Amino acid sequence: MTLPEVIGAIHPLREAWGIPPSEPIGAVTADSRQVGRNSVFVALQGEHADGADFVGEAFGKGALAAIVSEAGARKVPDGLFRTKPVFVVRDPVEALGDLARAHRLRHRNIPLVGITGSSGKTTTKEMLFCLLSRTRRVLRNPGNRNNLIGMPLALLELSAEHDAAILEMGSNAPGEIARLAAIACPDIAVITNIAPAHLEGFRTMEGVAREKGDLFRALGGSGTAVVNATDLRVVREAGRCRAEKVHYGVALNDFSGQIVSMSDAGMRIVVRTPAGEFSSFVGVAGEHHLMNALAATAAAFTLGMRPAEMEEGFSGFSSVPGRFHPVPLRGGGLLLDDSYNANPASTEAALRSLALLARGRRTVVVFGDMLELGESSSSSHFRIGRLIASLSVDRLFAFGAGAAQAARGAQDGGMNGSAIDHTTDRGRFREAVRGFVQEGDVVLVKGSRGMRLDEVVADIREVLA
User: Fold this and answer.
1) Which residues pair with 66 in a beta bridge?
2) What whole-number distance in Å separates Cα of residue 98 and Cα of residue 267?
3) Residues 29 and 114 reside in one and the same domain
4) What is the pLDDT of residues 61-73, one digit of tens each?
5) Which of 12, 71, 3 is nearest to 39 (CA)?
6) Are strands 112-116 and 138-140 parallel, antiparallel or unpaired?
7) Domain boundary among 260, 281, 316
8) What pTM was estimated for this model as a whole?
9) What is the CATH number of the domain that holds 56?
10) Domain limits at 218?
11) Which residues are CB-contacts of 230 (< 8 A; sequence separation ≥ 6)?
12) Are residues 330 and 415 in the same domain?
């Protein structure tokens, strides 16, 4: 894109000086440390720093232009306004999205897969990337950069060299998925599941469903919706869009499959497609990850891949740290690092997979609060505690105010009180876990990101890995 095209995309509030008519822009970044020659620097207001403070530095590093808010413009020296293209906009985040959408429309011929859901988004994205990248050049957003800043920045890296794009989309407030979908213009949409998550922002499950369903509705009458047939809310949202639909599930769908065998290292699955079946090893275990693999298969099939091409694709997948990531421990033990995030559905799935992987070994659950559940928090934690008891877990370490209800639920479900340890003292919690786990244990660490259970994962690895 050239700067006049940038102006046409973001509609700045006032004219800027020094605009070369045809010089192409370089990378678009919101991090002044990453600015290079011909970059466009988007000055965002962060928690700890204001990008407007670094506009001068960005131009000093060779930036071609900067985008700032009206408030941020007051921090920019007048000399820069008189000599450099400084674009003042009402909302730099919105301008970033508008710029990414304009860029996407220049590459509309490249098929794009949008993925959202209450859980499993990142894993499904990485599985699909493994399938496609064996034969195609694929763009995906790195890590979990799936919000109104991270996703547009990733999309702006799309180029004619790519054969496909996969963009994960996350949301914790109404309207965000609709905005992300409007920016990305997906050809294929995947909703992994719809479950209680971010209820403080969406208030009700209907609100969650509407938000996720906006990705399907963004397809209009074209494109393909990849539908989880085992999730009635996903099926209902699919019924509200006009796109073509393909369904996946454990049986009697366009795409189905089963787990043939399971070990600490992962599982072997058989997947059935409209063009035949294939078998593959996947480096992560659990029924919920079978569903993620089926979603990835359905999207890859829609993009033209066939069973023979996909057979080895999943073998290149390795689980993402923090997302049910298996770590071998001494003495034949296993650490299941699921510390990145938690909601009731993903926690239940992780617990059931823990039970399947136990195989006679002592099981330990290290559980932290599931955050942002609003009024359903107490009952949701209590039900998780009851499930822990029903799965005959040997020891529960519960951390946080919400986890107190999980401890109560576990005891109510018949778990011996001496096997339950609850605290809100982080230091005592970490020390108790370190002092208890031993060689040969299977340990699940699960909680919302704000509970910082990755610290406990590091403790266990230090002691036993």
Assistant:
1) 41, 86
2) 42
3) no
4) 999 999 999 999 9
5) 3
6) unpaired
7) 316
8) 0.93
9) 3.40.1390.10
10) 107-316
11) 249, 250, 291
12) yes
